[in-house]
Amino acid sequence: MSAPRLLLRLDTGYDIGSDTRCNATRPDLVADWIAIAEAGVSAGCDAILLPLQRTGPDPWMAAAALVDALPALRVMVTLQAGAMLPVAAAHLAQSLQSLSRGRAWLAVEADAPDVDATDRAMHLNRDQRLARSAEFLSILRALWATESPLQYRGTYYRVEHARLPDLVAQRPPVYWSVAERHEIAFAASWCDGLLVPASAPPLAAAVEHAYRARGLAPPPAGIVLRRTIRFDAARRARAAQRANRRRGDA
User: Fold this and answer.
1) Residue 247 has what pLDDT?
2) Residue 36 in contact with residue 195, Cβ under 8 Å?
3) Calpha distance 37→6 (Å, rounded)
4) How far, in Å, CA of 61 to CA of 78, rounded?
5) At what angle do helices 126-145 and 86-99 cross, to 10 degrees?
6) Which residue range is the domain that position 186 belongs to?
7) Tell me, what CATH number does 47's domain have?
8) Would residue 204 count as lying in a domain?
9) How many structural domains compose the chain?
10) What's the whole-number average pLDDT of the chain?
11) Distance from first CA to last CA of the chain, Å, rounded?
12) Under DSSP, is residue 144 helix (H, G, I), strand (E, B) or coil?
């Protein structure tokens, strides 16, 4: 299955709009998600991006509800390296990929401002957070690649005799959610591509209408859409060259 090109970032939290008390007591949040997801796909989005947020359901649970309700929908779940142990993340991703019959993708990020990542990793500098993400992704890759129990001892993670269930599913594609340009070279070593902000005013307007039709205040237009950039051999080579130049200048 080809990678989604344009994604709708679906706000599943209780803090949609200004009246959080109203949203927290809505009778059917899943119906809201389904309606907005359907509107986004109808307007031209290829998939739904589920972010990490301070409030509201876990994005994995939201993804499971959406792929069950909408059999053709593709979902990308945001995963932060510092917020979950890698073995648990690999198992969840494999399970969602199996249950959705190959309609799951991952968006990985080193930090997620929406969930106070700075507080959790305030003792780590930028390079250390990327190093932690590299360990995290290497464990995911190893678990998905072998049926043998995994042993791993790194700076940030340790894994003892871990293995995943025998599920009929290929590994979900992994994209890096770019926060700064220096992360691109890092992502080229570990991920299938990049996830970056996108602009499509007509589509954003359709999504805004869908939120308002459900009685919800839409999120800011600038955060609604994302697009993917898949790494090919040429992009990986250019990223490696830039990384080497930076190391030479350091």
Assistant:
1) 56
2) no
3) 13
4) 12
5) 50
6) 6-15+23-249
7) 3.20.20.30
8) yes
9) 1
10) 84
11) 41
12) helix
Query: What are the tokens at 154?
Result: 């790194």
The answer as to whether 1 is a domain residue is: no
Q: Letter for the amino acid at 99?
A: L
- List beta partners, residue 178: none
Gap between the Cα atoms of 180 and 126, Å rounded: 11
Of 28, 40, 2, 5, the C-alpha closest to 218 is: 40
CA pair distance 110, 107, nearest whole angstrom? 10
| Calpha distance 24→113 (Å, rounded) | 21
Q: Give the Cα separation of 224 and 11 in Å (integer).
A: 9
Q: Are strands 104-109 and 75-80 parallel, antiparallel or unpaired?
A: parallel
CB 13 within 8 A of CB 56: yes
Is residue 105 pLDDT above 90, yes or no?
A: yes
Q: Which helix (H) or strand (E) holds 99?
A: helix 86-99
pLDDT-based confidence at residue 111 (cuts at 50, 70, 90): low
Query: Could you give the CA distance from residue 172 to residue 143 in angstroms, rounded to a whole number?
Result: 12
Task: Specify burial of residue 6 (Cβ count, 10 A radius: 0-12, 13-18, 19+).
Answer: middle
Are 153 and 135 in contact by the 8 Å Cβ rule? The answer is: no
With 0.90 as the threshold, say if the pTM is over it: no
Q: Judge whether 81 lies within some domain.
A: yes
pLDDT for the residue numbered 227: 94
pLDDT bin (cut points 50, 70, 90) of residue 74 is: very high
Q: Which residue, chain included where needed, has tokens 């991952």?
A: 106
pLDDT at 155 over 60: yes
How does residue 117 score in pLDDT terms, banded at 50, 70 and 90?
Answer: very low
Residue 71 lies in a domain: yes
3-class DSSP state of 85: coil
Pairing of strands 150-153, 158-162: antiparallel
